[in-house]
Amino acid sequence: MGKTAFVFPGQGAQYIGMGKDFYEREAVSREVFDKAGQITGLDLPAICFEENEKLDVTEYTQIAMVTVETAILKVLEEKGLKPDVTAGLSLGEYAAIVAAGAMEMEEAFAVVRRRGVYMQEAVPEGGAMAAVLGLENSVIEEVCSRTEGIVTVANYNCPGQLVITGQADAVSRAGETLKEKGARRVVPLNVSGPFHSQMLTSAGERLRKDLDRVHLKEFSIPYVANLTADYVTSPEKIRELLERQLTSPVKWQQSVERMLGDGVDTFLEIGPGRTLSGFVKKISKQARVLNIDRYEDLEKTLEVLANE
After folding, report:
1. Under CATH, which number does the domain 127-188 receive?
2. Amino acid 192: pLDDT
3. Average pLDDT, the chain
4. Which of 166, 181, 261, 271 is close enough to 69 for a disulfide, judged by CB 3.0 to 4.6 Å?
5. What pLDDT is stored for residue 124 in this prediction?
6. pTM above the 0.90 mark?
């Protein structure tokens, strides 16, 4: 029998109303929202459920996403679902580390709240990101290295889709060159900063001071990190990985390939949207992909797994 991975999406998948049905139907989810609110001083149900402008602002987006992902995770744990491995894309790593048992959710909420603030403050404007579709990795990497200014690869998402990041003018110039090189599309992303670029170095340094105060435990479930696309065996390594993650590429495709190679055949995406499900399907046509965003998804997933 194959293995199951719990995977958690990152910033960009958020939407008004995310997590509301879990909050209304599961006491353990309400407890997660309450705990996150106590720690951060934010009204997270209002940010997540009611029309507002905060949800798309990095300092609020990040804690909102991790709260929702953890609220759904705790329902799964209560119902006896347990993964063989966990992973998350960028911000989603925090929920993945909680799921792996190496960090308490309370500490994750406190760190993520500050992470969002640090990233918002590090580059209030002047940065950009763009998705590049239909071009080989090596071509994109070479164009970035030859472009004047700061522009690098931010995300290796799946075959035929990378994201570049850096100074807005440099990202624009690189995008034009990539289209000349044969890129099918270069799509500017609606983000508030050049995530996973050296422009976030100061945010990483500030975050590390907070991470140094976090109590980490041994992993109860294996976890694959963005930075290395490999298993992390030492909880102490998490501090360095999460600091460097802010300025380094997210190796999501490589992470999924690592899990596939280790016998994972089912990927359960936990949280808003279906971004990771789409990436996994493009990486492996054989993998089974499940998704829990809304409560009805939970019911369908439980039914699928019960029939095995």
Report:
1. 3.30.70.250
2. 76
3. 95
4. 271
5. 64
6. yes
Residue tagged active-site, from 29, 192, 196, 277 = 196
% of the chain with per-residue pLDDT over 70: 99
Q: Is 215 known to be catalytic?
A: no
Identify the band that residue 75 occupies on the pLDDT scale cut at 50, 70 and 90. Answer: very high
Q: Domain coordinates of the chain in residue numbers?
A: 3-122+198-306, 127-188
- Catalytic residue, chosen from 29, 90, 192, 197, is 90
Q: Is the pLDDT of residue 152 over 70?
A: yes
pLDDT value for 190: 78
Neighbour count for residue 50 (Cβ, 10 Å): 13
The CA distance from 147 to 276, in Å, is: 30
CATH topology of domain 3-122+198-306: Malonyl-Coenzyme A Acyl Carrier Protein; domain 2 (3.40.366)
Exposed/middle/buried for residue 54 (C-beta within 10 Å: 0-12, 13-18, 19+): middle
